[in-house]
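Note to self: the last two entries modelled the partners one at a time, which told us nothing about the interface. This time every component goes in together.
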Amino acid sequence: MAIAGTILGRLLKAALTLLAIAVLNFFLIHAAPGDPAAVLAGEAGAADEQMIADLRAQFGLDKPLYVQLFTYVGNILTLDLGYSFRQGAPVLDLILERLPATLILTLTAFWISLLAGVALGVAASARVGKFTDSLITGTALLFYATPLYWAALMAVLVFSVQLGWLPGFGYETVGSGYGGFDRAIDILKHLILPALTLGLFFMAVYMRMTRASMLEVAQQDFVKTARAKGLAPATIRRRHILRNALLPVVTLAGLQAGQLVGGAVLTETVFAWPGIGRLMFESLAARDYNTILGVFLVSAAMVIIFNIITDIVYRLIDPRIGHKA
Amino acid sequence: MKHLKLTTFLVAAMLATGAAAQQDGGRLDLIVQPEPPGLMLGLVQNGPTQMVAGQIYEGLLRYNTDLEPQPSLAKSWEIAEDGMTYTFHLNEGVTWHDGTPFSAEDVVFTTKFLQDNHARFRAAFSHVESVDAPDANTVVINMKEPYGPFINAFEAGSMPIVPKHIYEGTDYATNEMNATPIGTGPYKFVEWSKGSYIHLTKNDDYYIDGLPHIEDLYYRVVPDAASRAVAFETGEVSVLPGGAVENWDVKRLTEMDGVCSTSKGWEFFAPHAWMWLNNREGPTADKRFRQAVMFALDREFVKDVVWNGFGTVPTGPVSSKTNFYTDDVPQYPHDPEKAKELLAEMNYDGTPVRVLPLPYGETWQRWAEAVKQNLEEVGIKVDIDSADVAGWNEKTASWDYDMAFTYLYQYGDPALGVARNYTADQIKKGSPWNNVEGYENPELDKMWAAAAIEPDNEKRQEMYTEIQQQIVEDVPVAWLLEIEFPTIYRCNIKNLITTGIGLNDGLRDAWIEQ
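The predicted structure of the combined assembly is written out below.
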């Protein structure tokens, strides 16, 4: 019950936060030079004042800014994200169309980095100072220091151009007519390179954090007590050390999870992945106000939701946390 | 004017020659870059839209690489001797992709539709008095005055014929059919997976027997230039349209086995690059400063290094690839000493100039750096003032710059694609596609106006020669390069580029050797 009450309170606060974020975003985006009418006219390679004036009227940009703001806030309060005149579709449709691709990519990268990172961290801490430890720590450092776009391009050059094992870009084989299981396998093949490149950096971070945290917890008195009681070393590591060592890792995972939507712009660009990060970037470049505000809002909502989830996970790992508050 | 009675063009007979070797079928993957905002060509006219939608929609005419009109939806046409009437005879048996018959009424409706939505069309049609359809296959256009370049305004991008039965009486911008465009062209729209690809398929009911040859077209959206090069290397796409990869990748890709490239197919557009020099204020307001800039620039170097040898150094406002060009104009070779003299003569006080590059990729950044270096060599201080596309639009449209990179299409005639940058009536704040530099020369304005409606081509040439000589003397902008965008493709794709607008309507005739 306590948890349910807390969550309800958190959701209320979250709604207010979201509203504030929406208004702030609105002003930020309108502060950037240029507007969608000018961009569209510019791309057409020819425009006269009449065309630009027509476009502005169509987009509602001819109205005073405060009127546009009230219209916008009124819309989002009724869960209407508006219409993208540039793409000729409702913003919600555009976002829902792109969201699955991004979630597949970022969630895969998230679990790969979290599971592999924690596993490697535990392994390194168990053999601290030995060769395995140096190997894992060294590799992680390399991943940590490598710029994402470079890693991505190298991966494509090696595995796609040279070896021809994996597709170098795209979400699935275009025009293949695959369905069901074949399609899933096809998407999976396309997923490997982008998910790995996106996951490498966080894997390194989790690995280092797990290792450091494990070593720290291992020095504490309750672990000595457990040892003195004669518990098996594996049990101590799993039940006593890891459980406590995971808390900082969960904090960081919560932060990464907040970026699951919209946090993969670079990877999506290099791998031509039709996700929401690219939608955000392209809409920003085109000053497609409604779309960009929609993506920002959905991303902000995700960050808040994942914050709440992180808090719940904390309590599950360490029940003391809820009682203190 | 010479009577230009063109007899019916025997398209079928033309195609019969060599038809034996042509193979049907196959699938072609091309790059489209960037992803078009829409495919309804009557509403959106940016480059990527023209490239894809040019297979779906058609104009009354096409233009060969010498910019001579060819039949398209119109099989023949006559221009009255006084230049006041254009009569088009339409192909018979043409249907829209939804099966509705195409007729002259669609053309008449199109002229109304485009006047509301297409700035370039609106300008060309300002010389038109009325458009009539005396019968289902004839369109008669009556002019207010003779307008020589008018015959160049009928290709698919300038005047795409739109279906009356779908758009009449609707709100064009929000019509749901915009998402599933219906045209008369050789390919039909199938699917647009946003962010991934656009799929078109062969129009089996196309009115020219035996065309098109290719079964499926996939326009792939790949946002990163390096990834586009990889896509071509791995064979996943077989056509890289001009500008799809950065210039330094062109050489490597064209040296691969079985890879061909061509610079043809851009004659109609003849992209001309220059820097707008702000004629209103700052050092660039002084003609001597602008001439000094021209002498300071090493344009050959940029062509060879930044553009990897592609392109031609221009002599003035008119592209050497288009009609009414002359090279009999003042010359500006790379001459830093001459530039320094001019700067000394005007007592240039060292005020820095702000250079605004075009936000269209690495090549343009490098170009701005080369210009900065050239100008600093002769003592001009330069700040590079970068912006994204929207910011670039804003700065140029509000005249907030000293020198700004741009390039414009020429559209086959100085009156269509060149005059708009130099006449005083085109000085309009708020749009980046007119006389942004603020050049005013009343004498020349009169000549531009007279040349546009002069029916005699020899007299037009004389007038345009004089215009070019005077403008090049005044240097309102710094002409940089006649840009060449090579199309890179696998050699087994034949007939890919057959007209002056290249890939934009090229897939009608293309076929793949199996």
